[in-house]
Amino acid sequence: MKILVLNAGSSSIKYSLFAMNDRRVLLNGILERIGESIAIHRYHVQDAEPVNLEIPLANHQQALQTLFSTLADSGAIRNGELACIGHRVVHGGELFKQPAVITAEVIEQIAGVIPLAPLHNPANLQGIKESMRLMGNVPQVAVFDTAFHQTLPDYAYRYPLPADLYIDHGVRRYGFHGTSHGYVAKQAADFLGKPLTELNLITLHLGNGASACAIENGRSVDTSMGMTPLEGLMMGTRCGDIDPALHFYLSRSVGLSLEAIETLLNKQSGCKGVCGENDMRILHDMADAGDQTAKLALSMYAYRLKKYIGAYVAVLGRVDAIVFTGGIGENDSRLRRQCCEGLSALGIVIDPDQNQAPDQTCSAIHSTDSTVKILVINTQEELEIAVQAETCLDALR
Predict the structure, then answer these.
(1) How many C-beta atoms lie closer than 10 Å to residue 79's C-beta?
(2) Residues in the active site (predicted)?
(3) pLDDT value at position 183?
(4) What integer pLDDT is reported at residue 360 of this predicted model?
(5) 8: three-class secondary structure by DSSP
């Protein structure tokens, strides 16, 4: 069985084709700068050299036509071989606790939660509609970032606001990065040789966007991102937790519009706001060269991570393992060390040597003195989407 996974953004489409019998990537790529004068198409067919093309792509329709032509021309799929297309959808609201086979009704429901994810769901929907138009004979499944966190108890997902805002407008914590948190939790259980339903984990997805998740007996019970991906940890360009009254001050005293405040908090804050850069590799270089703003940004980032680790230890009571994942979590040994320093009272002790060179897929980096396991796991969100799409279709047979 072959499954294609699509992640459609406003100006890009990422894709991966999997052979599900052995979970192997047959082809993956990205179409970028869709709608600009010259777009970029980078892709890699298994056992071949990567390809990098500059081509005109006026819209998502042309981009997907190019994508499906590439799949056919490369020999990665032949007639009738594509069993399913799995679509990443950022927000499913409270409607979707599981993946869903895409129908006209599901499309309408995804559109209905656009107000909860106005920057993401429209692009996800555009990819779905064009894919359905071009490949309507192939079953298609929506997999939601928010679904993994639908197990949060009400006292964790409700905000202390008037009840009608939740009842009538859906104002609550939803959480994101659910496919990543869910995937690495399962990998941690396999690595530790225990059923996931018996494990308490703190998973840390650290990329340009970042979130923490408290997992009790395999179920998400709290997560740092909220109604939107802005809440929680300090991120590359997002502020994370701030005083909610700051919005009023920025409007009244600084004269910023609501749109300007939204841009400021989402795209000009976080590490970028503190030191002008959001690439952790550049931040470390700047800090090594003596830049005090970079040192401050790194300290703030690690400090806020520590606070969430401590909070989730309190939520879970017993923690079996902490999992680092995402581009930063998997590759930044210095940050991992920094955010685990001083946590020995919680049973969290990192091994400096193991931390320097973790395995590419899953490895332990805790000291023998640590009562809490510390793992670094390579997240594979596209594979998790493919697996969930396959499971969804199997349930219908």
Answers:
(1) 6
(2) 145 (proton donor/acceptor)
(3) 98
(4) 78
(5) strand
Instruction: For residues 188 and 196, give the distance between their C-alpha atoms in angstroms, rounded to a whole number.
Output: 8
* 247-275 pLDDT tens trace: 999 999 999 999 999 999 999 999 999 99
* pLDDT given for residue 79 in this prediction: 80
Mean of the per-residue pLDDT values for the chain? Answer: 96
Give CA–CA dist 266/118, Å, rounded.
Answer: 13
Domain 195-381, what fold? Nucleotidyltransferase; domain 5 (3.30.420)
Known binding residues for Mg(2+): 7, 381
At the top level of CATH, the class of 2-144 is: alpha beta
16 to each of 28, 64, 126, 310, 334, how far by Cα in Å?
A: 4, 13, 18, 37, 31
Whole-angstrom Cα distance, residue 151 to residue 153? 6
Every domain of the chain and the residues it spans: 2-144, 195-381
- The helix/strand/coil state of 154 is helix
- In angstroms, the CA 385 to CA 4 distance is 9
Helix (H) or strand (E) holding 192: helix 178-192
**pTM attached to this predicted model:** 0.95
What residues are annotated to the active site? 145
By DSSP bridging, strand 24-32 and strand 39-45 are antiparallel
Query: At a CB cut-off of 8 Å and minimum separation 6, what does 100 contact?
Result: 106, 141, 142, 392
Domains 2-144 and 195-381 share a fold: yes
Residues of the chain short of pLDDT 70, as ranges, are none
Binding site residues, as ranges? 7, 14, 88, 205-209, 279-281, 327-331, 381
Binding-site residues from annotation for substrate:
88
Looking at 217-331, which runs of residues are DSSP E strands? 219-223, 321-325
- Residue 275: the pLDDT is 98
pLDDT digits (tens, 9 = 90+) for 112-166: 999 988 888 999 999 999 999 999 899 999 999 999 999 999 999 999 999 999 9
